[in-house]
Amino acid sequence: MSANSLPEGAAVWHSLEVDKALELLDSNADSGLTPQEIQQRLQKYGPNELEETAGRSAWEILLDQFKNIMLLMLIGVALISGFLDLMALRAGDLKPGEVPFKDTIAILAIVILNGILGYVQESRAEKALAALKKMTSPLVRVIRDTRLVEIAAKELVPGDVMLLEAGMQIAADGRLIEQSNLQVRESALTGEAEAVNKQASLKLPEETSLGDRLNVVYQGTEVVQGRGKVLVTNTGMTTELGKIAAMLQAVESEPTPLQQRMTQLGNVLVTGSLILVAIVVVGGVIKDGGFKNIQELLEVSLSMAVAVVPEGLPAVITVTLALGTQRMVRQNALIRKLPAVETLGSVTTICSDKTGTLTQNKMVVQSVYTNDKTFRVTGEGYAPTGDFQLDGQKVSLEESPEISALSVACAVCNDSVLQKEQGEWAILGDPTEGALVTLAGKAGIEKDQWNSKLPRVAEFPFSSERKRMSVISQVEGVATGEASSRGVDPAIAGFLQSEPYLMFTKGSPELTLARSTQIHLGNHSAPLTEEQRQKILAENDLMASKGLRVLGFAYKSLAEIPPDGSSEASEQELVWLGLVGMLDAPRPEVRAAVQECRDAGIRPVMITGDHQLTARAIATDLGIAQEGDRVLTGQELQRMSDEELEQNVDLVSIYARVSPEHKLRIVQALQRRGRFVAMTGDGVNDAPALKQADIGIAMGITGTDVSKEASDMVLLDDNFATIVSATKEGRVVYTNIRRFIKYILGSNIGEVLTIAAAPLIGLGGVPLTPLQILWMNLVTDGLPALALAVEPPEPDVMQRPPFSPRESIFARGLGSYMIRIGIIFAIITIALMWWAYQHTHAAGYQGDPETWKTMVFTTLCIAQMGHAIAIRSNNRLTIEMNPFSNIFVLAAVVVTTILQLMLIYVPPLRDFFGTHYLNMQELGVCIGFSALMFVWIEAEKIFLRIMGKKAV
Fold first, then answer.
1. Among the listed ranges 119-133, 562-576, 727-741, which one has the minimum average pLDDT value?
2. Which residues on neighbouring strands pair with residue 605, listed in sequence order?
3. How many CA atoms lie less than 13 Å away from 643 in the CB half-sphere?
């Protein structure tokens, strides 16, 4: 077979015999490929590398920032302002001491700063692919042309014969040719924590899921023990890792709700501003009967354009999000992408892994069945404290000696170690065995002591074929004060006959029971009847139906140590001890978090690779699902079309036996239904789904680098309750962003209308210069807006459904509030402006006639201070609120007012900003008019309260 006729991307290597796979790839298990074949295949398949599609360069990202419509308008304003200054400079029309181009420089500085701010947020390159590449091995040993050689992993081709040994990272996907005790850790790829025992001789059905393909190995996984010979079947982008890389790069990053709303806001503001500019210019030309005052009209237009753009808003939003990330980190949620802070507040569905997120990732024994009795076991985690209960009543171990006997088997037939670290009980070893050591501890059986009482002399290790393990111990006579005649512990006195050795066996209940002929009852054994056998099997089924992982225990007295390899003969005629059912117990705090989700209108969904019965038991216990709810398995999901999945996705709250690659389909189906999805994941295969989700959440403890790089948020404690806390914080951030947008844009509209009114009512000149408007938008608006960003949450923030992520920024009355307050702002200021103009142009006025402009400037700025105090709550009056619950607002109001007064009374600042000195009467008039803004907003609250309506 030539290289050109090799099978393309075959996905069924696990369903082929080894010889058939070798034949299809035209390879030889003993001699490998020839140099000519290798060269041909390298040309056909390319190097064994993950390919990266070209992304945007740093320059492209930076230039994209200046495509924002508001920044484009400011650039236009700066250029026109510079042109007018240049004309004035040439004509010698500049006033004494006036600095040319100061407006242009100030505006361009704001544009550049906003551009840099956007660039810093967006330029964090996606490093998920780089993390994937780290998972590929640099060197690999292969058989080529009958010789063993070591080559760079990128030179591997389909048909190569690769050798594996413990500690290696596998460099390509392949079909096992032969293996010896080969165990591979595939958790990064499949999500399954335990190493997989590989078997080359198997031929599996085509539909076998990725994690169950025991006769193949995958790129990026790790050999834990043993050795193997592998036929390379897929390299580069055709490997499972390559498919993930392709999916990762195919996922388009959608703008977040906040980014979409800010784009909409910019479009509306610029469009509105241009319409107003056109009205003012056309109206002025008609009023003057020509273009004789066109320069003045242009200056008015420039001021209006600057006034409409909230220059400080991007900085305020960035600081607000950054403060949100700090608060979230304190709650164990690390935000990787700043806009994700606000996005969390829009989440409608949380898809969570089970193990470690909803559960403790600690196996805990829940139930013990021995001597025809089922005992419930209490206690949390690995702490060896708890009770044995029968029918809800605590039982003593003296009354139930069979519990002690079973507990001895749990402790002795065990390779894990229970120890206390920094006040916490922890396990060294397998979590399942850890649960058994903890159970023994609850029965007063300490593993360390029993290792000396029953020292291990031999063992038959666990194997996936036998589904059990056995330990042979020598019986040591240990006096206890009330010992039996042989001086052994009473807990095992009933085990002993005349033999010096005991063999303890644990494993699959069905297989262990099938090898048992007797049963341990209290302190003696008796023949195992068929009725007892059926009862044990029925109890096993009952435990399994509750989602418990069940193990069976038995023992046998031996006269001598059995030889190696005699497990089949030795593990016969056992004495049955009982069943132990365990569960990865739910985290105690998750039940409350799930209920909080439901109260907040968020639907929690469990997605797990575990058995459907276990998934249902945990989900029902936590309140994620109800009894009888449908569980969708990975095999069922695989057979569904995208349309069928979309129809079912709102009805299913439990997905079991799901491979991580299915998560992407689940997310996409939910999104097509209009849901806003948060998805958790820790494995490499989870990365595409994490990137596709509106909020991708990686696990900080168990997560791979790839999943973390693809995520928006990392859970530092892997806890579902942390997601709910972060969602609450996201809602608070969004509420505060809306609050200061109302605050900023209400005043901006007032500024624009005031500037537009000046020429239309016959007042000479522009009341505000672009520099003064920038001062208002950045300082007078910016500092109180930052203070409003840390406003504490409203009490009902998690008692309402999430707001639609697709809602307009102007939704729920925000737009009408801005227009209403802007008009009131303008009416107050225009009234002041009219009075001030008449006052400063009256006969005998001692000051500069242009002082009226400074009065307008001051009134607008101080009115905003009253606005900031009143807007802290939508419904409560200011006198009803604790003024110190947000001390930052008071501080911002005081500091901003002082700064504003400095522009009037400090000569260098007065000259730079073009203001004029105000006497006490004029300042008092400005403060009086400004106070009307505060009075109006408070009066609105009283009116709405009387009308029984709730403010936006």
1. 119-133
2. 351
3. 0
Kindly give the pairing relationship between strand 393-394 and strand 388-390: antiparallel
Place of tokens 């033999």: 499
335 Cβ neighbours under 8 A, 6+ residues apart: 324, 325, 328, 329, 341, 712, 713
353 is catalytic: yes
**Secondary structure letter of residue 33 according to DSSP:** B
Collapsing DSSP to helix, strand or coil, 165 comes out as strand
Q: Would you give the DSSP letter of residue 562?
A: P
From the list 85, 160, 353, 686, the catalytic residue is 353
CA angle, 468 then 472 then 475, to 5°: 145
Integer CA distances (angstroms), 929 to 212, 866, 935, in order: 76, 11, 10
Q: How far is CA 474 from CA 47, 512, 559, in A?
A: 57, 22, 10
Q: What integer pLDDT is reported at residue 10 of this predicted model? A: 47
The string of pLDDT tens digits covering residues 259-282 is 788 888 888 888 887 887 788 788
- The candidate with the shortest Cα–Cα distance to 240, out of 265, 221, 227, 268, is 221
End-to-end Cα spacing for the chain: 73
Compute the distance between CA of residue 856 and CA of residue 761 in angstroms, rounded to an integer: 15
Q: Which of 264, 276, 283, 282 is nearest to 303 (CA)?
A: 276
Cβ distance 226 to 38 under 8 Å?
no
pLDDT digits (tens, 9 = 90+) for 689-730: 898 999 999 888 877 777 887 888 999 888 899 999 999 998
- Structure-block tokens of residue 657: 């036996």
Query: Cα-atom radius of gyration of the chain, to the nearest Å?
Result: 37
**Do the beta carbons of residue 693 and residue 340 sit within 8 Å?**
no
Helix or strand (DSSP H, E) at 196: strand 196-197
807 to each of 133, 257, 258, 260, 706, how far by Cα in Å? 40, 8, 10, 10, 33
3-state SS, residue 146: coil
How many H-runs (helices) and E-runs (strands) does the chain carry? 34, 28
pLDDT for the residue numbered 484:
41
The CA–CA distances, whole Å, from 157 to 10, 28, 30, 44, 162 equal 14, 14, 16, 9, 10
Tokens representing 84 are 């007018």
Q: Give the pairing type, strands 501-507 and 468-474.
A: antiparallel
SS3 385: coil
d(CA 352, CA 698): 10
Among the residues of 761-781, which ranges form H helices?
770-775
Interval 538-553 mean pLDDT: 89
CB 435 within 8 A of CB 442: no
**Crossing angle between the packed helical segments 851-870 and 887-905, to the nearest 10 degrees:** 180
Q: Which two tokens stand for residue 497?
A: 């006959």
Q: Quick one: pLDDT at residue 125?
A: 47
Token pair of 835 as six digits? 């009075």
Gap between the Cα atoms of 826 and 832, Å rounded: 10
Burial call 103-125: b when 16+ CB within 10 Å, e when fewer:
bbebbbebbeebbeebbebbeee
Q: Is the pLDDT of residue 255 over 50?
A: yes
What DSSP designation does 149 have?
E
Q: Are 503 and 457 contacting, i.e. CB atoms less than 8 angstroms apart?
A: no
Does residue 234 sit in helix, strand or coil? strand
Chain mean position to CA 442? 37
**DSSP 3-state of 409:** helix
The DSSP bridge partners found for residue 350 are: 604, 678
DSSP assignment of 435-469 equals: HHHHHHHHTT--HHHHHHHS-EEEEEEEETTTTEE
Note whether 506 and 469 are within 8 A (CB): yes
| Measured CA angle at 813 (ends 812, 819), to 5 deg | 150
Tokens 């024994």: give the residue: 365
Measuring CA to CA, how many Å separate 774 from each of 306, 742, 748?
7, 18, 11
- H or E stretch at 424: strand 424-428
Which among 306, 263, 298 is positioned nearest to 111, based on CA atoms? 306
